[in-house]
Amino acid sequence: xxxxxxxxxxxxxxxxxxxxxxxxxxxxxxxxxxxxxxxxxxxxxxxxxxxxxxxxxxxxxxxxxxxxxxxxxxxxxxxxxxxxxxxxxxxxxxxxxxxxxxxxxxxxxxxxxxx
Amino acid sequence: xxxxxxxxxxxxxxxxxxxxxxxxxxxxxxxxxxxxxxxxxxxxxxxxxxxxxxxxxxxxxxxxxxxxxxxxxxxxxxxxxxxxxxxxxxxxxxxxxxxxxxxxxxxxxxxxxx
Lengths: 115, 114
Description:
The structure holds 2 protein chains of 2 kinds.
Chain A: E1 3-7, E2 10-14, E3 19-26, E4 33-38, E5 44-50, E6 56-58, E7 64-68, E8 73-78, E9 87-94, E10 103-105, E11 109-114
Parallel strand pairs in A: 2-11
Antiparallel strand pairs in A: 1-3, 3-8, 4-5, 4-9, 6-7, 7-8, 9-10, 9-11
Chain B: E1 5-7, E2 10-13, E3 19-24, E4 31-37, E5 43-50, E6 53-57, E7 65-68, E8 75-79, E9 88-95, E10 104-105, E11 109-113
């Protein structure tokens, strides 16, 4: 069965600093991996996804993530944090073992950005 | 840009009452989902729906829950007799294809059961 673990429920960085949000997955098949962002009182918005091919994936708003099979990781990074990046971030894996295609989410990481 | 819409944004109900949460998926999408997020917890899958039938459902999705696509645009989640523990944010999502394609989420309905 697939699962996702996000290390750190809350991460705080200064504006301009590196953002690193950690995600590890467990999957019995080659995973499809996603990062979603949730701004206050809004739905989930896709930041980026990995399916096949290049392991470094670039997304919106300057975020990128690298799929590392040997480490079963898909960490999210951004070189320089902006105040508008403050939000909750969810890592997810697609359940490819079943017909429904559901997403299995991690616990979420709340990112705070200090001026 | 097309988006998934959900109504109402907030629903307050008494325990034991029936509620219907409504979603309008993106028009050319074929796969539909309901997820929920209890306050402070992770987003959990409830049910997936394709070709007018349930593809998969979670353990949470018991006999008190049902889904329906009553017409060509709406996708509804019904809770027959609400419990306190049903209080959560409910998200609808849709996608054009499975697995590799992006699931587009609505803004959610916050359900409060008193």
